[in-house]
Amino acid sequence: MQPIRIKSYADDSDNRDIISLSTMKKSWLPVVSIVTLLLPSLGMGQRSEQVAIAPWTFVDGTKTSRETAIDTVRNIIEGQGWNVLPQEIVDRQFESMKSDLTYRDGQPLAAELIKFGKSVQASKLVYGKISWHTRSIWVGAGPKTISTSTVDVFVFDVNSGKTLFKKSKVEGRSDEKEQTLKVVAAVLVTPLITAVSGGPATPREQRAVQISLGRAFEPFIHANKGKK
Asked: Which of 52, 141, 186, 192 has its CA 20 to 30 A from that of 81?
């Protein structure tokens, strides 16, 4: 049997830079795969914060007033350039976990917040407590419905396990004068709910919670200015 001679590129200078198309395709496949996997993490600019609005505790307040509260928080947080996770997914996950969580002073412990935050892939949690006191008072010739909303708000970092911001017992009244609401209006993305004197309770509660949340988050917004 004749020995097989393997020709070296050195034997033929014309073949020195010849690479078959099929070989080139195969050699690039692993590189293309790696680059494809890395693209999401190499996005242009810094990845936006993933925020979950939960858990929230409500005391009194109509269903619509509670929905307005969550929508207000969402608008404030999105105004900071953070991405807020879909509320239905966040609420469903919290409902499945809340009976197993350990609480102190009505709020989950830090370890529980970390567990919940990781379960929804959130980097931040915005949570707290909201209560309403709605009543009818007699003003001049007739009754007037007013509502006071009191809020506790927290911004929690899931990765570090630290509370970045907290504000407690911040009040807002539905009948506050317009001139006192300039700071609140600067924080709120949506206009204040209009509530007519002597009308139903819900618009009064909605307006009151917008005011209290705007007032509570104002120091947080001010501190984060320019950090977007």
From this structure: 192
Q: Half-sphere exposure (CA, 13 Å, Cβ side) for 101?
A: 22
227 burial via Cβ count (<10 Å: 0-12, 13-18, 19+): exposed
Flag whether pLDDT at 131 surpasses 80: yes
H helices present in 79-157, as ranges: 87-97, 110-119
Higher pLDDT, residue 8 or 103: 103
Write down the pLDDT at residue 33. 41
Length of the chain: 228
CB half-sphere exposure, 226, CA atoms < 13 A: 2
Name which residue leads in pLDDT, 31 or 96. Answer: 96
CA–CA gap between residue 154 and residue 141 (Å, rounded):
42
CA gap 103, 121 in Å, rounded: 21
Q: What is the CA radius of gyration of the chain?
A: 29
For residues 204 and 134, the answer to whether their CB atoms sit within 8 Å is yes
- Residues 100 and 103: their CA atoms lie apart, in Å, by 10
The DSSP code for 121 is T
Tokens 């618009």 sit on residue? 203
Q: Which SS3 state, helix, strand or coil, does residue 38 take?
A: helix
Helix (H) or strand (E) holding 75: helix 63-78
